[in-house]
Amino acid sequence: MRDVVFIGTAFVAKYPTGGGSFWVPVQYLLGLRALGIEAYWIELVWAASEGDVDRARGQAARFLAQTEELGIAESVGAVVCVGSEADAAPPVSEERFGAPDGDLWARARDGLLLNVAHSVPASLRSRFGRTALFDVDPGQFQLWARQVNLGIGSHDAYVTIGQNLGSDDSPVPLDGVPWRRIWPAVHLPVWPPVEVRSGARYTTVTQWWSEGVWTVLGDEVIEASKRTSFLRVLDLPRRVPVALELAANIHPGETDDLRRLDEHGWHRADPAAVAGSPAAFRRYVQGSRGEFSCAKPSYVRTRPGWISDRSVCYLASGRPCVVESTGAERHLPDSPALRFFRTEDEAAEQLRAIELDYGAASRAARALAEEVFATRVVVPQLLAATGLR
Questions:
Q1: Is 42 helix (H, G, I), strand (E, B) or coil?
Q2: Are residues 351 and 214 in the same domain?
Q3: What pTM was estimated for this model as a whole?
């Protein structure tokens, strides 16, 4: 019988201007298909009640239109579910759009569910032959799972991009869960290297606040807002020979933050305008000189070895990255293209080092993506971790 993999998510359609989020499942879908695996991406779109269904249908329609633009519609479906995604009971009703043809749930009985970020609740997971929980928020996820049910103990396999989880400098308890570690993946054929244009800036696309998102470690409460991290390196643009740009969703009413960024030399862009679709996100990344980005305080404190799925797109495009340390550097080969910092002084030093031989750093970025992050490298590891291959 032919292997079938279903990538399950529930975070893309409800964020229609999140072009970067869209790419996360796409990389694995394309990587699986390139290896000859029959693979589908199923996006769940939840409606709290029957009166909310029209909104959910609209989100599903916009989502599927974007898959058409990327040329992957034949492998992507959306299911509008009425009910609560946190409820143990099955949805009150379901309405399916897009692929695959025929009876989705009949095909699922013989398939593997790759449950990204615990998007598919237990009431729907039972319809799949085998399930793998895929953690893309390492450190935070393991700590959240100690407080609420995130599927620990009810999947057949457990996969994380947290390469440093379990190491001596990561304080996150794993509670005996057999996490298998892989790197975030990028599908190189759709992320080719491109020439850098004159005047291009180091950029990043990010949330500014993560409201209501906290991580508890023992008696310590750790926040998860990138705002805190960027304000720690506020003076950086004045100290480096390159321009830095933030595509962060800062509300126009946050005048104090906007003024501080402007006064310290940060360029700003509207993420919905420059990265509001998968195609726009790719143009923005490939139109940049490189990436400079901070990590959430929760990643810095828990040191799970997180690398952003966004950063691997920069690297594949031949764009060097300077990112805040989360422990990942302990598990990567040394590269002039991917540099880590803990302080503003180190961030300035790393950016200046890249600019001493930008051409070499750009070539090394693509080489690192080919060696470590390419789907042809990562997806076989993923399949082995889930027991499929």
A1: strand
A2: yes
A3: 0.97
